Each structure stands twice: as structure tokens, then as C-alpha cells.
Amino acid sequence: MNNMYIVANWKMNGDQIINRDLISTIEKNSVINDSSHMIICPSMPYLQQIDTQKPPYMILGAQNISQYDNGAYTGEVSGKMLADLKTKYVIIGHSERRELYNEDNNVIRGKFSKAIENNIKPILCVGETIEHRNSGETFDYIHSQIDAVLSSNKLENLKELIIAYEPIWAIGTGQTATPESAEEVHSYIRNTLLNTDSNLAENTPILYGGSVNSDNAEKLFKMENINGALIGGASLNGEEFSKIYNIAGELTNE
Ligand code: PGA
Questions:
Q1: CA–CA separation, 225 and 223 (whole Å)
Q2: For residue 90, is it within any domain?
Q3: How many Cα neighbours within 13 Å face the side chain of 187?
């Protein structure tokens, strides 16, 4: 796969001034590359701001979506609303949502359906805790997270799927998985997709997330089954984020 995907997950950070500066710093420092796709996921209240201020090559993404259509769900944001704000991607099943807001595979299945129904492309996050890893359960755990979505969807709903492998112990900790150990899980994920369909396995980008920065990005991106990154902390620094995007771009040119 030649395409790379570099996704900024700004989490609950930013304000109108910070966001504007961040977008303009990224714009100034990024070398646009058609095969390297940049997706920016700001906090919900700023979707419209980013849509207005970003250059066309940056693609708008959201960090969450409701599993319901509309109605008495205080504080929730529906897929229809996200689509109305021109959101093209949505992060689903981030470990912070799974852990802090008790989103289980059932909830994630619901959110996935709402993304598809509203033509928003899902970025499904999966990843193990340090306890799973230490007890040798990494693959089984990740299999169950992916299967929750694969088994409940027709193939046509999975066409635009992106998977992000984010080992929980690597998120925001500065402790990245080694490129080799990340690749081991990425290739396991690719094989899991292969059991469903060969085109699905071939065409689904599998991103790595967890303390990615401009020092470790190149080695990670050179791995056969790593097709980009989901970036938290380093995406809040425009120059750093652009560096990572540019590294991905250079590799797609090779
Ligand atoms: P991090 O976050 O890059 O700060 O580790 C990644 C994520 O949570 O998506």
C-alpha cells in the first residue's frame, strides 16, 4: 500500500486562537504529498472553525460520534450533525473512550454503524493494556476488538475502514512500541482482515499510535504493515506534526 495516513488527535485541547495558529504552522511546514493524507481531529466545538480555516488538503475528522440518531441524549453529537459540519472521518473506540467512558464493543459497534450510515469514515482504535501484553493475551484481545466490528458488518460497510493500533501502555507515556513489536501486531491485524476478505486486508490502512514523534516515525513507517500514525501529544506542536507528515510523504515517494 502506497498511501500513508497521518492523523492528529488533538483530544480535549485548544481554543480558537491556538487552533488557528496550529493550522497555520502546519500549513507553513508541511510539504503536500498526494499519497500522504493528513486528517485533523479537533475537539467538537471547533469542527466548523477548522473546516473554515484549513487548506483543502487537510481532512476534517472528529474524535467521537453518538451511537444514537437524535433525541434526549444530553451532551452527545450525532453522525448527522458531524456530516452536516463536513466531517469526513471519526475516531471510534479510542482507549480513553473505552476506559474512561466505559465504551464496550457493543457501544463501539453502534458508533461504527452511525459513522457508516452518515458517510463518515471510521478510524477504529484497538490496543492492549500492559497486563494483556504481559500475560500473552495481546493477539486474542485485539482479535476480539476487531471481530466486534467485522462480524457485525457487511463487507461493503468496511470499504473505508482505517484501523489504528494503539498499545495502551504507549499512549502519552513517551514509551513507543519498537517498530518490530508494532509490526508484529500490525501483521496480525492484516491477517485477521485476510480471514474476512483479501481486498479488505490489502486496502485497509493500519496506523500505529502511541508516543509517535519525529524521531521514531521513520523507523515505524518503514515497517511493511504500518501505513501511518494516529498522533496525540506531538500533534499539538505544528512543526513537529509537519515533520512527521513530511517523513511519511518522503517514504511514499521512494
Ligand atoms: P500520543 O497519543 O501520541 O500522545 O501517545 C496517541 C493517541 O492517543 O491517539
A1: 6
A2: no
A3: 8
